[in-house]
Amino acid sequence: MPFNLSLAEREAAGLKRSLPAIERVDGRCLYAGGRQYLNFAGNDYLGLSRAPELLAASEQAAREYGVGAVASPLVVGHQAIHRELEQVLCNWLGLEAVMLFSSGFSANQAVIKALPGKEHTLWQDKLNHASLQEAGLLSPARMVRFAHNDMRALERKLTPNAGLIISEGVFSMDGDTAPWPGLVSLARQSGNWLMIDDAHGLGVLGKEGRGTLNEQGLEASEVNIFMGTFGKALGVSGAFVGGSRALIDYLHNLGRSYIYSTHLPPPQTAAVLAAVRLVQQADDKRDHLQTLIHQFRDGVAGLPFMLLPSNTAIQPLIVGEEHKTLELAAALKQQGLWTGAIRPPTVPKGSARLRITLSAAHTKADVQQLINALHAAL
Ligand SMILES: Cc1ncc(COP(=O)(O)O)c(C=O)c1O
Hints:
Blueprint: H1 8-12, E1 22-25, E2 29-32, E3 35-40, H2 52-65, H3 73-77, H4 80-93, E4 97-101, H5 104-114, E5 121-125, H6 130-138, E6 142-146, H7 151-157, E7 163-168, H8 180-190, E8 193-197, H9 212-215, E9 225-229, E10 239-243, H10 245-254, H11 256-259, H12 266-280, H13 283-300, E11 306-307, E12 314-320, H14 322-334, E13 337-342, E14 352-357, H15 364-376
Parallel strand pairs: 3-13, 5-6, 5-7, 7-8, 8-9
Antiparallel strand pairs: 1-2, 2-3, 4-10, 9-10, 11-12, 12-14, 13-14
Residues 103-105, 108, 129, 131, 168, 172, 197, 199, 229, 231, 239 line the site of pyridoxal-5'-phosphate (PLP).
């Protein structure tokens, strides 16, 4: 047998993963094994995944366009509804041009594999998402990683006019934000390009939910590449890449995961359109989410776990050891609370954590229940 499929070592180290048998899930609750849990592990930050407006829009689009896009975008898959969403995203975020992808993973692959050649360098924050790091490793460019959010470390490693700096708006496993004014000025000074992956900031931060750049007083045009996803605060699935018309035309020609993949299904595209409209007007949901974030942080301040500095929906409690993290997650599950036990290699060794995510769909009583259970679990 040419492959060793044993997972015994991973299991012994508390690192084996397996699919949980979820029956269904939304921003607030999930159902598994016939039991209802409060969901503190998802990314439906505004609770839109079951919004009636999204359901109605996707149902109507299914009747009008069918459930599938029928082809990849450059063949015949790119339809009126896709163009409408691209235009709405451009207007919302202040982008010149946009292209749609069926996932954030494939959006990052398209950009990072198509742009740089072997003469270029990619500078990536050490905590960038796997889809960014992996694309960087597969690209012909030299990849340099810099210490998390450390602008001095980045400055020391930069060479002029040599490539692309990549960071996240909100870090997916830590919940903190990158210092975008610093990144913008380093990119400008050094003549390098800059890319933001704002998967977890879009919808949650900034005016009308425009994301991390807006929250930090910057325009989308201050980065060269703006990537965002539809599967988090927008409650659907899929992603976009925005930038100059020239960049998007280039990626239409060379972004392989765009060219060689069936386009976004029209019902999904229509649901995203409806979600963008709701997100723009969702200040009440964003305010409620902020209230829950403060409530949670105050409530767990006395626990013997490190709470990372995050003012976003992602609130990780660092436990450290893998088995202990699994035990804590299991104790919470017994209390009807579902949290993510995140272990290496998703996060650095020794920093296994409960990745607790809050949603505007939660109530203050839900969050209090989680706080009480965390205190009781010790
Ligand atoms: C920062 C970041 N970028 C990209 C992705 C991938 O997006 P998608 O789930 O749409 O493939 C994720 C997903 O978790 C993410 O956290």
